[in-house]
Amino acid sequence: MTGPEIFSSLPALPVVPLPVPGESLGSWVTAVAQTYGMPLAEYLRRLGIPHRRGAAATERTERDLVVRPCPAVIQALQADTGVATPVLLGMTFDGLDRDLEEACHRHHAPCPACDKDAGQPARRSVRLLSARAAWRVVCPVHLPIPRSDEVAPGIPLASIDEQLRTILGFLDRAAFDRTAFADLVGIRLASAITVGAFVRFVYLLNAHLRIRITGFDTMRDRAEFRIVGCFDRNEGGAPMPLPAAERNTPALSLLLAWQLTIDPLRTLLTGMRTLHPVRRKSMQDIAQVTGLLDLLLEIWLGEILASLLASGSMSIGQQPGNEGHAALAVALTDHRRNAPDHDLILAEAGWNHAALIGLLFSGEFPRRTQRLSQFANIGPFQYRHVAAGLRMASAVQRRRQKVWANRAWDKRAGLQQLLSEPKRPARGKAAASRRPPEARRDPDPPVPPSARIVEAVQVVMAAHVWLFLSDCAYSLTTSTIP
């Protein structure tokens, strides 16, 4: 790091070590103190930082320098070293999104190879700022090598590494720019998606969902996943994380979270498969889809599921293999139409579609109103607020209720018609003139169904939903997408 732009004034100290590119302010302040053989605590007192005892206190002081530096300390350090204020602040997280600050206090995952490469030219120990970046799930320079049980043979690992570096580079920018997600998900959804929520989603996926990459589209930088294992719940209903030995490398969870965010519909329907093939689905596959939805609703409540609810054809009354499911599956797999296994891809997309819609309209998820998460704190993020309590979630909830209310009840036979609201007559003189004479009198008030009939209908509907989900293990295995 050389050049006249580093210094903005003459330093008060006769010798000033140059900061290394990417070095944290705490590391460089330590180097300044060591240059003069001065204990770090004594030099911090010179800068105006009160003395703290013990190794933990020193660590806390260093974190304070990096995460939220005091302006008076920066001013004193600039006068001592002559280094320009923008350069000093560039070694800190100044301007960081506030929901990431506490996570950066708790996060410390240095890459030994990067620290060694940075320290060799300077001939001193160097601690990089990226070690405390909570969104740096893995090091973009030294990416971990996936295990053999995580990636199918023949997958281009170089393409996966390039995609991971692109994701981490975006997070480096988005951590300081709340509008960065607008380029990916649109302005409406960008207000609900932050880097903190996204990375917490990565840790939740890593701790509760085990996946395997079964394919990779190098033209579109899209991976295909299979769910290998999913979390269970204890007797109290709380989710239990997977054992540490059974978890994926965090890089795989980062890739999955990224694709679920930027292209949720394609990822959910055609980019993911449950454990068993489409003709051998079981309740274990239903449990995996249910667990995935639990994780999705934990973070976004349905912002990334809203596209599933945008069409009136996605009704729970429709069965797998019909025109609505087939049309969506064909549209999403158009780029794979010449693949030899296209029929299997369509069948999996239809099964995923039916299972997801059945769960979303089952009545269980719309009643999730808790504001605190049932999932344990994972990673450096300690807040447990569920997205259901956010303003964005209420808008999505209203959209889901509207889809539910606008379904074609009048086309459905049986007792379900009793729950549909009667159509209101048109108002105004013009509307009255268009009606036939025998219909221009005041309509008789609708006779509400008795309480017993309503109760019976509700029981029938609840049973219908449960049978729909239970029969996925059998009926969907014997049907294919035409």
TrEMBL record:
InterPro entries associated with the record: TniQ
Stretches with biased composition (Basic and acidic residues): 435-444
Organism from which the protein derives: Skermanella aerolata
Chain intervals for the UniProt region annotation (Disordered): 415-449
Pfam families recorded: TniQ
Domain of life from the UniProt record: Bacteria
Name of the protein in question: TniQ domain-containing protein
TniQ domain: residues covered: 14-142
